[in-house]
């Protein structure tokens, strides 16, 4: 599978090495070397995935993600110089779909890339451009979410989870199935990541509203109804 990659890592030896490795492995690569990249420029390239290196240069690459507020229509892997808990949280909050550290083996990185592309394609392939549930509206092309006409800013993974629930409205969604379909197979069964993200979603989608649409099915999972 051919993967088109945007690397926004700035001028550094690490960025140059990654660029060469990807080219030698047969990937088509576009390399953005500065932080002032507009969303329009990124969308013109229509990549399958974007790699964002953070901490390897003075370029604030996570700032690039934050500026687009999770609306880029492709997955993003953040490559961190230091993979501390704080940096991990920072990267996911900025809009990363996955996070690895700078020492990740190249083979593992390419496996993660291709897995994310397949997962992203499966979730969006052949689906309508808009999803409606009562006063909730999701624009799948722009990845924008509205409730009662008010735009709601979500991280990419919050958006993916919301779309998964919305496409199965009035159907019980089991935690383990959500984990596999939304996060893939990188997380071991037993993690509470689904519960954590549902809690985040509720704060943004339901808080302050008389009508709650995301509900817990005790001992099983969640349902939008």
Automatic annotation (TrEMBL):
SMART domains reported in the protein's UniProt record:
Trans_reg_C
Identify the InterPro entries for this entry: CheY-like_superfamily, OmpR/PhoB-type_DNA-bd, Sig_transdc_resp-reg_C-effctor, Sig_transdc_resp-reg_receiver, WalR-like, WH-like_DNA-bd_sf
Question: Which PROSITE patterns does the record cross-reference, listed alphabetically?
Answer: OMPR_PHOB, RESPONSE_REGULATORY
Q: What keywords does the record list, in alphabetical order?
A: DNA-binding, Phosphoprotein, Transcription, Transcription regulation, Two-component regulatory system
User: What Gene Ontology molecular-function terms does this entry list?
Assistant: phosphorelay response regulator activity; transcription cis-regulatory region binding
Its Gene Ontology cellular component terms are:
cytosol; protein-DNA complex
Spell out the SUPFAM superfamilies in the cross-references: C-terminal effector domain of the bipartite response regulators, CheY-like
GO term, biological process aspect, one: regulation of DNA-templated transcription
Start and end residues of each OmpR/PhoB-type domain: 128-225
DNA-binding region residues: the ranges are: 128-225
Q: Which domain of life is it from?
A: Bacteria
User: One Pfam annotation, family name?
Assistant: Trans_reg_C
Q: Which residues form the Response regulatory domain?
A: 4-117
Q: What's this protein's name?
A: DNA-binding response regulator
Tell me what organism the protein belongs to: Paenibacillus lentus
